[in-house]
């Protein structure tokens, strides 16, 4: 079989976006890494949150081989993925006022911790309120979003603001409104979203920056190893024991 022209075009689009965020967000990535390293060094905790498909990039840095053991998923029931039935309920819950506050109030997050909030559009009530409430509690908020949505769409939050307006650091994914990189004759809708590729890369780049900053401080980054390599389970057991008071995805 021959090569797919459209498949190649998607790779080209994704590579182009990755280069854009590498060069355009380098300062913000370094700042986000430093904020995470600061929290680790000071005994604080790390959380990541995303709703719908934005949750994929949040989950990608939690309990992950090669990742920071201290990164915890802040779970909002019903919006973590497409497993909720019906799947459309997750989208509806993103627009519910007050949900973010209730989740934060019942979570272990407190002043000095870091919360990464991932929302492609940054326009729904849930991520906006999550950022507002987290900052009010004294958390450092890192937003991962497409800033373009703030100029090309209307906010769905009563304040008229977006996620980017309530963050200490903003990582711009530079994804175009609509999140579809390709069009083709004979296909009515645009297709091939790249937000997951780009946002996950931003998250992993930030974790790498955090590890680099920790080493600079003379601190061994609390990383997990793969359980599929010899010695991995033993290594992870030691890390989880040492940092057990800051890891909330295990009992």
UniProtKB/TrEMBL annotation:
Residues 36-219 form the SIS domain. CDD domains: SIS_RpiR. InterPro entries: RpiR-like_SIS, SIS_dom, SIS_dom_sf, SIS_GmhA/DiaA_subfam, UPF0309. PROSITE patterns: SIS (PS51464). Pfam families: SIS_2. Belongs to the UPF0309 family. NCBIfam families: PRK02947.1. This is UPF0309 protein AB0A76_23770.
């Amino acid at each position: 079989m021959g090569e797919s022209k459209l498949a190649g075009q998607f790779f080209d689009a994704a590579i182009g976006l990755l280069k854009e965020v590498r060069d355009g967000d380098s300062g913000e990535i370094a700042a986000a890494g430093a904020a995470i390293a600061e929290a680790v060094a000071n005994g604080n905790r790390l959380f990541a949150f995303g709703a719908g498909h934005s949750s994929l990039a949040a989950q990608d840095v939690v309990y992950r081989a090669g990742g920071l053991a201290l990164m915890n998923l802040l779970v909002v029931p019903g919006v973590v993925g497409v497993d909720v039935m019906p799947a459309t309920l997750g989208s509806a819950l993103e627009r519910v006022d007050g949900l973010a506050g209730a989740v934060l109030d019942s979570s272990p997050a407190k002043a000095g911790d870091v919360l990464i909030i991932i929302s492609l559009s940054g326009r729904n009530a849930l991520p906006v309120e999550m950022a507002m409430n987290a900052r009010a509690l004294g958390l450092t908020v890192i937003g991962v979003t497409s800033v373009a949505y703030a100029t090309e769409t209307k906010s769905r939050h009563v304040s008229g603001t977006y996620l980017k307006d309530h963050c200490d650091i903003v990582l711009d994914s530079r994804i175009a409104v609509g999140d579809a990189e390709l069009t083709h004759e004979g296909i009515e809708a645009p297709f091939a979203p790249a937000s997951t590729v780009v946002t996950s890369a931003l998250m992993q780049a930030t974790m790498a920056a955090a590890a680099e900053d920790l080493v600079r401080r003379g601190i061994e980054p609390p990383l997990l190893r793969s359980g599929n390599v010899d010695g991995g389970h033993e290594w992870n057991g030691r890390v989880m024991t040492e940092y057990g008071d800051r890891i909330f995805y295990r009992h």
